[in-house]
């Protein structure tokens, strides 16, 4: 059978696209293209995880939030500090696991997102 | 400044997680792990595109759909045929571009998703 081989993209609908794009550029350092997005080239050892959660999953933020994106970062602590300094809502929780370190924050439209510092070499 | 370096994951909230996971396994060939998802390893030349669309973007499906995932496939025509044979709602439109071929369909919960056959070598 034919099978999906990877995650080629994720597209978010904003209430105010211009403001949300500016927010991600300013706080998460996304070099936004003229078309409102960025193509992240795959690097050796990396991966993108895709999963379907149950309706009551607290991990995805408020019940009305229908999806959550996980963003790779090089230095989780530095990214969290950068966000806190800018007044962004950042979770106090940081999760240290065998597959990396995780933190969470909310964007200007209230979407919870995940930050992930993978283990070295992944 | 600290910058996001890639898309590490995308997580979807289902109304009926068990049914939606089974649907993606059956129709899109996703080998679902025990935890309800799959880790797609990055391959040379690949990329994941991330973008923020405006509120009225028709590309993302119905106005209530807040995000859309793009899935990489090896043979778009074969995947679309597989979906049609199974009775899945598939768009008649196929887009041929310099950066690949695109098609669209809807899952069992009404989420529009994109299928992408990248150019050879990407």
Q: What attributes does this structure have?
A:
homodimer; 122 residues; alpha+beta; 2,3-Dihydroxybiphenyl 1,2-Dioxygenase, domain 1; 2 helices; 39% strand; globular
Task: Tell me what you see in this structure.
- The structure is a homodimer of 122-residue chains.
- Chain A has 122 residues and is of the alpha+beta class.
- The first copy, chain A, has a single domain (4-117), classed as 2,3-Dihydroxybiphenyl 1,2-Dioxygenase, domain 1, CATH 3.10.180.10.
- Chain A has helices at 17-28, 76-85, and strands at 6-13, 37-41, 47-53, 67-72, 90-97, 100-106, 112-117.
- In chain A, strands 4-7-6-5 form a four-stranded mixed β-sheet, with helices on one face.
- The two termini of chain A are 29 Å apart.
- Chains A and B meet through strand 1, helix 1, strand 2, strand 3 and strand 4 of A and strand 1, helix 1, strand 2, strand 3 and strand 4 of B.
- Strand 2 (37-41) of chain A pairs antiparallel with strand 3 (47-53) of chain B.
Largest sheet of chain A: 4 strands, mixed
- Largest contact between chains: A-B, 66 and 66 residues
Distance between the termini of chain A: 29 Å
Number of helices of chain A: 2
The CATH homology group name of chain A: 2,3-Dihydroxybiphenyl 1,2-Dioxygenase, domain 1
> What is the SS-derived class of chain A?
alpha+beta
Helix content of chain A: 10-25%
Report mean pLDDT of chain A, rounded to a whole number: 96
Give me the side-by-side strand order of the main sheet of chain A.
4-7-6-5
**Strand percent estimate of chain A:** 35-45%
The low-confidence runs of chain A, each spanning 5 or more residues with pLDDT under 50, are none
State the assembly state of the protein chains: homodimer
Radius of gyration of chain A: 15 Å
* Strand runs of chain A, count: 7
The run of helices and strands of chain A is EHEEEHEEE
CATH architecture of chain A: Roll
Overall body shape of chain A: globular
CATH topology-level name of chain A: 2,3-Dihydroxybiphenyl 1,2-Dioxygenase, domain 1
